Amino acid sequence: MTVRSEKRKMLAGEPYRASDPEIVADQEAAAEWMQRFNATTGTAERDALLRARLGSVGLGATIRPPFHCDYGTNIHLGACVFLNFNCVILDVVEVRIGDGTQIGPGVQILTADHPRDPAERAAGLEWGRPIVIGANVWIGGGAILLPGITIGDDALIGAGSVVTRDVPPGTVAAGNPARVRAR
């Protein structure tokens, strides 16, 4: 029987311990990268830093600093994606953002999840559930996307909304929790 590393468990969306030395080293590397990225003023240099750290970056994708993430390597941006100031992506598993999507300031994209059972939480276990955001989506400032959701192409997410469920393509979701309605 092969024992999987905590990092492999994390990437597979299984319960893992974030205190594992390999995971901590990855978080520290991401923290150093964020310091450089957030201090950089040149567009070309920021673009090079994004391409060096993120899982994939489409042509014309832009992130305005400050930006915060857990690892960066699990984030995939399509072409012409735009993230405004102060976005947070907890990317313990994949986050995919489709072409042309625009994300307002202060948006939080959270794949990290924790056990509901207090004994399991006390044991230090956590896991992640991937988030997929389609193409040409607009997410208003201050929105929060919870673990495991999918937002369909051409959807709109209202500012300040808390998205707890999938959002179908071409719809509007707003409120806390966000409720979906046709456009």
Automatic annotation (TrEMBL):
Keyword field contains Cytoplasm: no
Assigned keywords, A-Z: Acyltransferase, Nodulation, Repeat, Transferase
Coiled coil region boundaries: none
Cellular component terms per the entry's GO annotation: cytosol
Family: Belongs to the transferase hexapeptide repeat family.
Transmembrane regions: none
Any GO molecular function: O-acyltransferase activity
Stated role: Acetyltransferase implicated in the O-acetylation of Nod factors.
Name of the protein this chain belongs to: Nodulation protein L
UniProt keyword Repeat, yes or no: yes
Cross-referenced InterPro entries: Hexapep, Hexapep_transf_CS, Hexapeptide_acetyltransf, Mac_dom, Trimer_LpxA-like_sf
Gene3D superfamilies referenced in this protein's UniProt entry, alphabetically: Hexapeptide repeat proteins
CDD domains xref list: LbH_MAT_GAT (cd03357)
Domain Maltose/galactoside acetyltransferase: 7-59
